[in-house]
Design a protein that fits this description.
The chain is mainly β.
Length: 153
Amino acid sequence: MAKLTNDITRVFETQSDANTVLVAAGVKIYAGALIGRTADGYGRPFEAGDAVAGFAKDHIDNTSGADGDKSCDLKAIGKVALTIPGVKQSDIGKMVYATDEDGFTLTTKENSALGRVIRIESTDTAIVAFDLLNADKELLVVDTEEPSQGQGE
């Protein structure tokens, strides 16, 4: 490699909780929906067995468009409150699986892993930690307790 003799501009991506997916033809995505990827890699409202891509940040209507005509910004890392029927305090640390764009369960059968329960909010509602940018790595629970307040730190 040659040594630089002039300044150059490089484009860097900073650590982010976001991602973007090109949208499949003929689909409508609602803000907050869980998004999956088709076999061709296009985003659509999640269907059981899809690879999980993230949660849609906006409403996207590609019902009249071709594959990739529109893109959808996603929340791909974070914590989210989800309705999970039957979830209870003893489920903290368990994996959560997606059944459709707004369906979540603790059952693995034909479902896709999303994240882990880190806190119970109320009946059938839990906070789930997810990291879909690093989904190839095991999802670990690193923060199951609320931070202590007023400890003078």
